[in-house]
Amino acid sequence: MASLGHIFVGVAAGRAWGGPRVWRPMLAFSALSFLPDLDVIGFRFGVAYGDPWGHRGASHSVVFGVAVALVVALLARLGDVPWRRALLFAAPVVVSHGFLDTLTTGGLGSALWWPFSDARHFAPWRPIPVSPIGRAFFGARGLRVALTEVVLFAPFWIYALWPRRRAEPRG
Length: 171
Ligand SMILES: [Zn+2]
Known about the structure:
globular; 7 helices; mainly alpha
């Protein structure tokens, strides 16, 4: 899918995390949610789509998501951020990426169970049109995909952007 859906998941997680500067966790969780797609860099180095480390391969697995979340927890602990909470937020955010990609119409599925299996998986219901990769992303088809994601992921970004109620002064 285009990156929008993943980013909406990230900003919603950031909103749930909260804090006075909520844009910071929003940014951090959006980056985490998007992270598995950095595997497209492999295309440049001759990694084929269907390879274990190809696009939607290992980086889209549950094991990878949990591993990233553990690293995040470690960094959180070093940075004096509640690490259990960081783990609890980061794991579903990163793991959601591979599962969301199984809902798309094209390409290969996600290698959800790597390293136990290299099989690629799709969900039985695939409502999200796959995003064109590279420059085509900015064309008409890319726009249609982006709009579809804005609609499908509306609950996430509406939740993230909903105005916060100011704390009522007590007394
Ligand atoms: Zn992906």
